[in-house]
Design goal:
With 138 residues, the protein is α+β, with helices and mostly antiparallel strands. Helices cover 71% and strands 16% of the residues.
Length: 138
Amino acid sequence: MENNEDRIDVREELEFLESFINSSEKQINLLTQGIEDYGKALSVLQSKEVSESSENLISLGGGVFARGRIEREKEVMVAVGSDIFIEEKPERTIERLKGQIEEVRKSLQSLNDQRAEALRRYQAIVQSVNSSQKQDVS
């Protein structure tokens, strides 16, 4: 009976690890996309060509763009919460974006480490089960 309970525990742990590995992959993709978005905003704010241009395409989200002029010396609107925006000097926004990129990178590294450990555990359990089954057959 104990052998059957062990199999159930191993199966449950494998299912848990597989679920964690899959969900962490989705989270990693979202964090990576966040870094890319912050990087694009940072690039635009730091680009001299953008502010010298008479017109730019400005993303409104959802693949919709508007033509407009970005003036580096004017304050920009920055989301700081759910539907909460502040006006901020571009230099301050650049520093804010750099900080956000660093925080997301740390989260991404931590999640990658956790995923790698879960994957290692998953593979070790599978290898142990396969080895045990080979011994049972012999």
